[in-house]
Amino acid sequence: MIDFRYHLVSIVAVFLALAIGIVLGSTELQGPVYNVLQHTTSSLEGKLSDAQNQAQTAQQGLDADNAMLASSEAWDLRGMLDNQRVVVLTEPNAQPAVITGVETALKDAGATVTGQINLQPKFFNNGSATAASLETTNTQLAQSDGISVNGSDLSYQQQATAQVFAEEFLTKSSAGTTGIQTTGNAQSTQAQTALDAYQSQGFLTTSGEPSTQATLAVVVTPQVAPADGTADPLAQVLGPFAEELAKYSSGTVVAGTQAASGAGSPIAELRATSSVSNQVSSVDDADSVRGQESVVAALYSTLSGGQAQSYGISAGTYPTLNPATLPSPSATPSSSSSKKPHK
Predict the structure, then answer these.
(1) Of 34, 252, 269, 326, which has the maximum CB count within 10 A?
(2) What letters, b where the CB count within 10 A reaches 16 and e where it falls short, cover 92-101?
(3) Could you give the CA distance from residue 9 to residue 289 in angstroms, rounded to a whole number?
(4) pLDDT in tens, 105-126
């Protein structure tokens, strides 16, 4: 007959066997398991160290390349944009270093940077209030400036704003003239009135004198794709906005950065739309001296009758800089203040 003592002895025996197994197992396996883990850890640490050294070497090489290019930039770009005026438009969160680098390259090429038009987050807000406010401002300016604007949805009003910008701040180069001509007082006043109207509604801020008509336009985008995969409002607006600028200028380039240039980023969306990419050049690494010089080369190419192109690391190609064999475009801004027909 099995009594309580038997059960107790059985339970004790089971726990004793388990304890002995654990002690023996850990003692026997401690050496081999520890050695394997130590070897794996050492191997991973070595690979990490190698990768860090390679990254450091690559960064040092990049820094050296940028320093060399920066030192020769004025010589490399000399005369490429002589007698041209450039207005720089920026999107929210565009990197100050990129903006400064691009403007330095433009000036080294002989261009005059008229000023900056800095679009604010409100301009890209999808709310109905934004559409209504833009419609009111666009309608008022259109009536006073003789521009045809019809439509009430936000995307149309954002593009209509680009049309007003193009009408007011941009002009084609005129061949056969020399020197930078001044913009007529009436045209500058009209342009400044438009800037003031948008600025008073919180759609933009300005610096410099962007009311002076320019022949070329550069748009600096932060080029950040949303991490959650949603559509970037900047990406949706950038293409049509830049396309409108290209219609009324002698060349328009969109400049972005190397980071986050994948699917969904503003430049990726622009390049995916052939109607835009055929008119607007883009540079996806304008946070490097190489990319900043490519912005100038892209504008030069358009001025010389070339087609809009995609440049940079993601694009896999760069423009050829050889001003010694290519004469600098000598066309200068037209001083005409007559309005261009709305398209």
Answers:
(1) 252
(2) bebbeebbeb
(3) 82
(4) 999 999 999 999 999 988 888 7
